């Protein structure tokens, strides 16, 4: 039965690869690897922020946030900025862009291996995301909303039902990375778990085994 599971996974990945490469691709600036703030200070200052200025984010800021979320930290072994059970990396990062300098609004998917984003919708679908997240205003107004999703099949295929726990733990790692990166960039964010899973899945047209785990609006404070 294991070969059947692997066959299904390969088909899913091929479908997703084809789907992702139908849109406009934007190469992101290289992430900065040093900042003026220490990890200790970032931990001290980390807070959930729900109200943001109307100012757009820069492409460099978006690049930095995405790299912190799931970026490649070891090119040789393809390790990422977040630990992952069995190095399976089931998380997928989507971005609803409302205001980012230099790129049009829309929904994009992050490709960690190439550090680029691929546009999958020309609409940010912000009103739909707002409704699906129980009408939380910060979802509607933030320049960027990060949507963390997970391919549960990847981890469950190896770890069974316990893989579900590992995925939610990994989502927490990812969210904390985004929080701390936002502190260093003088940006605000908040982790949102209150949303209609089925609606988010429909809005993004996620594959069968992929589900949303967290929403994180981000903006200048």
Describe the structure.
The chain has helices spanning 2-20, 39-45, 59-70, 126-132, 137-141, 152-159, 162-184, 197-204; strands spanning 25-27, 72-74, 79-80, 91-97, 106-111, 116-121, 144-151, 187-189, 210-220. It is α+β, with helices and mostly antiparallel strands and 221 residues long. The protein has a 7-stranded antiparallel β-sheet with strand order 1-6-5-4-7-9-8. The chain has a single domain (2-220), classed as NADH Oxidase. It is 40% helix and 22% strand. It contains 8 helices and 9 strands. Helix 2 (39-45) packs across helix 7.
Compact description:
By secondary structure, the chain is an alpha+beta fold. It has helices at 2-20, 39-45, 59-70, 126-132, 137-141, 152-159, 162-184, 197-204; strands at 25-27, 72-74, 79-80, 91-97, 106-111, 116-121, 144-151, 187-189, 210-220.
Major sheet description: 7 strands, antiparallel
Chain-averaged pLDDT: 92
Series of H and E elements:
HEHHEEEEEHHEHHEHE
Give the low-confidence spans. 8-21
- CATH C-level: Alpha Beta
Query: What is CATH's topology name?
Result: NADH Oxidase
Percent in strands: 15-25%
Percent helix among the residues? 40-55%
Strand order of the largest sheet: 1-6-5-4-7-9-8
Features:
single chain, 221 residues, alpha+beta, NADH Oxidase, 7-stranded antiparallel β-sheet, two-stranded antiparallel ribbon, 9 strands, Nitroreductase, Bacteriocin_Proc_Enz, Nitroreductase-like, oxidoreductase activity
């Amino acid at each position: 039965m294991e070969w059947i599971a692997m066959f299904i996974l390969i088909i899913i990945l091929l479908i997703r690869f084809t789907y992702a490469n139908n849109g406009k691709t934007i190469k992101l600036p290289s992430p900065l690897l040093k900042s003026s703030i220490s990890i200790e200070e970032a931990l001290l200052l980390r807070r959930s922020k729900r109200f943001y200025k109307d100012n757009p984010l820069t492409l460099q800021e978006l690049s930095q946030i995405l790299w912190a979320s799931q970026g490649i930290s070891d090119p040789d072994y393809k390790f990422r900025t977040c630990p992952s059970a069995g190095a399976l990396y089931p998380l997928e990062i989507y971005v609803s862009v409302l205001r980012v300098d230099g790129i049009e609004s829309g929904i994009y998917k992050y490709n960690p291996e190439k550090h680029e984003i691929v546009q999958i919708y020309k609409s940010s679908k912000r009103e739909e995301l707002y409704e699906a997240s129980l009408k939380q205003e910060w979802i509607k107004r933030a320049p960027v909303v990060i949507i963390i999703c997970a391919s549960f099949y990847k981890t469950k295929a190896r770890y069974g039902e316990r893989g579900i726990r590992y995925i939610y733990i990994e989502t927490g790692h990812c969210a904390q990375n985004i929080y701390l990166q936002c502190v260093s960039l003088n940006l605000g964010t908040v982790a949102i778990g209150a949303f209609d899973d089925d609606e988010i899945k429909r809005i993004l047209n996620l594959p069968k085994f992929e589900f949303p785990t967290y929403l994180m609006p981000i903006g200048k404070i």
